[in-house]
Design brief:
With 389 residues, this protein is an all-alpha fold. The chain contains 19 helices and no strands. The chain has helices at residues 3-11, 28-31, 58-75, 85-103, 112-119, 125-138, 141-149, 161-167, 171-180, 186-197, 202-227, 233-250, 255-266, 271-278, 283-302, 311-318, 329-342, 344-349, 354-388. Helix 3 (58-75) runs antiparallel to helix 4, helix 11 (202-227) crosses helix 13 (255-266) and helix 14 (271-278) crosses helix 17. The longest helix is centred in the last third of the chain and has 35 residues, at 354-388. The N and C termini lie far apart (66 Å).
């Protein structure tokens, strides 16, 4: 059976079955060596000669069957008897134990978080989304976080997941979702912006305070490493820089604005998608967002070295997760330009925010002028180096 025959046969399977929607990454090491080359045929002038004996290996077949069994169990055909938290964890643990035996990977029994970390690559975005929905309904936040931070969820498969997290006031998980899930839809960005720019109640704002406390905790950790005498010089230098970056990221920013760092720090949204989301914000939300951007522009203007920050490198070396979400000057400038373009009529008709806009434009103009000077100076330096040679 050729690969083309296998694909054609798979297409004949009813698309309503969940198995057809939960693919896995096949192990090519077990498939390619078994392909049989057809006997030479002088009459065949094709440059590409298809092989035969294409079959899925036994291990992959077993994994597919395990995924099908899990998906059928989670679909829960009897709504009168919903799956309980204990039953769900039992199903999840049984699935991972079965898969771990099939591929010979050791896991910790009864620990779905460790299992997701080690075996999450087995899960397709579709089955991951199904598991995430159960995690929200059963409030298994640690399991859901494991799915998010291990990059197992995709925006196109996670329907209404953002809305459900907002409904449950899970600000920290929402920040994790923004950071780790690529290609957010405009409706998702819109909901996230409204949630962070206009906290619904005190409980909602309290959840955002917990996010800020995580930043403060890592800032303290960076300061401690910067002041330790027995630390290597490289670590001490990076820790001092991290302490400064944390100070910049927290100073003069409210707790809900710290949550916005994740959205504009990941820089994974297309300007058209962002523009569509921004066009639906009300006047108060737009004003708060512009003030947030201007705070960043002032910091980048006052501390020009910030544009060269190594937050990604610092985060990986010092094991600081939050600092990697610090927005870059490029992402802030792009977002500020989009919010001005999309809502231009609002800025014209509302003079009370005009001074803020004017301040932002002045800062951007100053940065552009300084950038031009630096570019010209760089060209002069390169010319002098060339002449010296």
């Amino acid at each position: 059976m050729t690969l083309l025959d296998t694909i054609a046969a798979a297409g004949e399977v009813s698309s309503s079955t969940f198995a057809a929607a939960t693919p896995i990454i096949l192990n090519s090491d077990q498939i390619l060596p078994r392909l049989s080359k057809p006997s030479p045929d002088s009459s065949n002038n094709n440059l590409i000669i298809p092989g035969s004996n294409w079959n899925i290996c036994t291990t992959d077949s077993q994994i597919i069957q395990s995924i099908n069994d899990l998906s059928k169990a989670l679909q829960n055909p009897n709504p009168k008897k919903p799956i309980t938290k204990t039953q769900f964890l039992s199903l999840l643990n049984s699935f991972f134990v079965s898969v771990s035996k099939q591929i010979d990977v050791k896991i910790t029994d009864s620990n779905p978080i460790d299992s997701i970390k080690r075996l999450g690559f087995i899960l397709s975005p579709e089955i991951s989304s199904l598991i995430a929905e159960f995690c929200i309904s059963l409030e298994l936040w640690d399991v859901l976080e494991a799915l998010i931070i291990n990059n197992l969820l995709k925006s196109r498969n996670s329907s209404n997941l953002v809305e459900k997290l907002i409904e449950k006031k899970q600000s920290e998980l929402l920040c994790r979702f923004v950071k780790h899930v690529p290609d957010l839809r405009s409706t998702e960005i819109q909901s996230i912006l409204k949630y962070f720019l206009s906290p619904m109640d005190n409980n909602c704002f309290s959840a955002m305070i917990s996010v800020r406390k995580k930043w403060e905790k890592e800032a303290i950790s960076a300061m401690e490493k910067a002041t330790k005498i027995d630390m290597p010089k490289k670590i001490t230098t990076l820790a001092k820089e991290a302490s400064f970056l944390f100070l910049i990221s927290l100073d003069n920013f409210s707790s809900n604005e710290v949550c916005l760092h994740y959205l504009f720090g990941c820089d994974n949204s297309d300007p058209l998608v962002l523009g569509s989301a921004l066009s639906t914000l009300n006047g108060s939300e737009l004003t708060n967002l512009v003030k947030y951007f201007i705070k960043w522009l002032e910091k980048y203007w006052n501390y020009s070295d910030l544009s060269q920050n190594q937050s990604g490198k610092i985060g990986s070396v010092l094991s600081l997760k939050e600092i990697t979400s610090m927005p870059s000057v490029v992402s802030i400038l792009k977002a500020f330009g989009v919010v001005l373009d999309v809502n231009f009529s609002y800025w014209v008709l509302n003079p009370e925010i005009r001074e803020e806009i004017k301040r932002g434009v002045e800062l951007v103009g100053g940065m552009a002028m300084e950038g031009n000077y630096c570019e010209q100076l760089g060209e002069i330096i390169e010319q002098l180096r060339a002449n010296k040679k």
